[in-house]
Amino acid sequence: MADLMTNAPSMARHVLRGRLEALLAAEGALGFALPREACRSASLNDAHALWLGPDEWLILSAPEAGLGDRLEGAMGAHPHSLVEVTDRQVGLVVSGIEAEAVLSVGCPLDLDQAAFPIGMCTRTVLSKAEIVLWRTGPETFHLEVWRSFAAYLRAFLTASAVVPVAD
Amino acid sequence: MLLITCPHCGPRPELEFVHGGEAHIARPAQPEALNAEEWTEYLYMRANPKGLHAERWRHLHGCARFFNALRDTTTDQFVVTYKTGEARPDLKGPAA
Fold first, then answer.
1. ipTM of the complex
2. Most buried of A106, B43, B59, B80 (most Cβ within 10 A)?
3. What is the pTM of this model?
4. Is B69 within 8 Å of B84 (Cβ atoms)?
């Protein structure tokens, strides 16, 4: 259980919203296309774009890469919204053969790989707290958790991972 | 658990959704031109039908978008969901 849950490496977070012209400019700065399919992600090196809504993406990147400034510079001429949420959220990585089962204790989605494949991401709820759930591997999930919920969800996941022992 | 089909995300558990009241109620173009009765009509009076009801829903803990749904108020069955801005599907319900 010690390695079921780890903190994700420090990263910069931005929420991007905009129309096509702004998105094309953003893609120029990103170096890859934003996923247009619902609940899918795209990555290049340390930069990741997670689909959150039809015109909304969560951009994760290495803090030292300065991606936010580059996005802002590229999209400057087009109406858009780019909000830095680096310190609003913390990243948790839940991994291991039981990761699916442990998350299923509090998440109502079908987390089987057939229904929730690698690369799928979505906002959802985990034990009533809103999270962004992102499958990065067969047995690995990345969770973006609002920092005020983090202690609660760490405790919840720890408790969920304990196998009840019969008396 | 009741599944609701979000027009953007597909079938999702009801925990992720919030209800947004009756759909297709347009705000008056000139609210200042209305008298108190007309404003009351716009603000408070709702159809409250038994049967098919066009409602706004929001996939709050998902894509966070509003959409519309036809729900049967007698069975709680979601007959169809459609994107905001689209016309109400022409369906006849049990008591429509």
1. 0.90
2. B59
3. 0.92
4. no
> Is there a contact between B14 and B1 (Cβ–Cβ < 8 Å)?
yes
Q: Indicate which of B3, B4, B5, B15 best probes the interface with A, i.e. most A CBs within 10 Å of its own CB.
A: B15
CA B75 from centroid of its chain's CA atoms: 16
Q: Does B61 touch chain A (CB under 8 A)?
A: yes
pLDDT in tens, A21-76: 999 999 999 999 999 999 999 999 999 999 999 999 999 999 999 999 999 999 99
For the domain bounded by A88-160, which CATH number is listed? 3.30.1360.120
Read off the pLDDT of residues A101-137 as tens digits, 9 standing for 90 and up.
999 999 999 999 999 999 999 999 999 999 999 999 9
**How many other CB atoms sit within 10 Å of the CB of residue B39?**
13
Question: Closest to B1 (Cβ–Cβ): which among A52, A108, A122?
Answer: A108
Which domains occur in chain B, in start order?
A: 3-25+35-83 (3.30.2270.10)
Domain locations in chain A as residue ranges: 11-84, 88-160
SS3 B90: coil
Please list every residue in chain A whose beta carbon sits closer than 8 Å to the beta carbon of residue B62.
122-124
Q: Would you tell me which CATH number, out of the four given (3.40.800.20, 3.40.630.10, 1.10.260.40, 3.30.70.1520), belongs to the domain A11-84?
A: 3.30.70.1520
Q: Do B13 and A109 touch (CB under 8 A)?
A: yes
Residue with tokens 């801005």: B85
